[in-house]
């Protein structure tokens, strides 16, 4: 469990560390004032924060995360909204919005960003991702300790770009973990993190979330099928998976 993600809200240092960067979202609007060309529409950031909080709460409600052990981010232009470190998601309000630029400089909020910021930023810098979901989902984390790649137990692997790899272990919150993750993510939209959890990305928060849920489900299927004594699950071939990928793209089948 990422210790940096734990702790009380008070320990996260609300209002006590560093200069106050920006006022909370709903206090920032100054109607009638011309904003700089590259400024983000305030309501776009506010909406994105609401969606981010809803997605973060969903990871807990659906059992993919226990406590504050996961994190979620969404990119709006050059700004990345992220869950703060150590605040239970049910307590998050618009006042708690935290955002950084792509270099990791905090541009909004007083709470500290998630300790897994390096993984989130590495994905935004090297892919077209608009949302990232990181969890410690139980079946996926279990699989991450057993194999270097999730066996092709189900064709939904195609939704993640192919067989899902396991990124080599490194200390949480480090650049080394982000580098290991990027290698495992090559041509994929999700991977497992050895002895740690999952990370997926997508064009929207819903898509990133769905990929995490599918990944956890596939890991559960493989563990379930592998658990029977004297039985070995059948696996799909790369060719069978390619067929699925083509069908998902709308090729290879006559369209009505
Ligand atoms: Zn973690």
UniProtKB/TrEMBL annotation:
Residues 1-42 are annotated as: Disordered. It is an enzyme of class 4 (lyase). The keyword Lyase applies. GO terms for cellular component: cytosol. Residues 50-223 form the Class II aldolase/adducin N-terminal domain. One of its GO terms (biological process) is pentose catabolic process. The keyword Metal-binding applies. Keywords: Lyase, Metal-binding. This is L-fuculose phosphate aldolase. It comes from Streptomyces jeddahensis.
């Amino acid at each position: 469990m990422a210790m940096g993600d734990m702790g009380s809200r008070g320990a996260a240092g609300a209002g006590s560390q560093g200069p106050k960067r920006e006022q909370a979202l709903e206090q920032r609007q100054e109607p009638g004032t011309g904003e700089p060309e590259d400024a983000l529409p305030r309501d776009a950031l506010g909406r994105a924060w609401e969606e981010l909080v809803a997605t973060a709460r969903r990871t807990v409600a659906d059992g993919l995360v226990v406590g504050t052990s996961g994190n979620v981010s969404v990119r709006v232009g050059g700004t990345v909204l992220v869950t703060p470190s150590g605040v239970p998601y049910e307590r998050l309000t618009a006042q708690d919005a935290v955002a950084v630029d792509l270099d990791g400089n905090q541009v909004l909020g007083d709470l500290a960003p998630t300790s897994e910021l390096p993984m989130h930023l590495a994905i935004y810098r090297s892919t077209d991702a608009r949302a990232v979901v990181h969890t410690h989902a139980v079946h996926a984390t279990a699989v991450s300790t057993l194999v270097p790649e999730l066996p092709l137990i189900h064709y939904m692997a195609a939704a993640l770009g192919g067989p899902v790899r396991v990124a080599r272990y490194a200390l949480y919150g480090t650049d080394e973990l982000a580098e290991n993750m990027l290698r495992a993510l090559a041509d994929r939209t999700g991977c497992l993190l050895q002895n740690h959890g999952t990370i997926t990305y997508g064009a929207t928060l819903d898509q990133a979330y769905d990929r995490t849920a599918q990944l956890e489900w596939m890991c559960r299927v493989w563990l379930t099928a592998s658990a029977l004594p004297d039985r070995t699950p059948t696996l799909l071939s790369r060719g069978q998976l390619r067929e699925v990928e083509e069908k998902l793209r709308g090729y290879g089948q006559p369209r009505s």
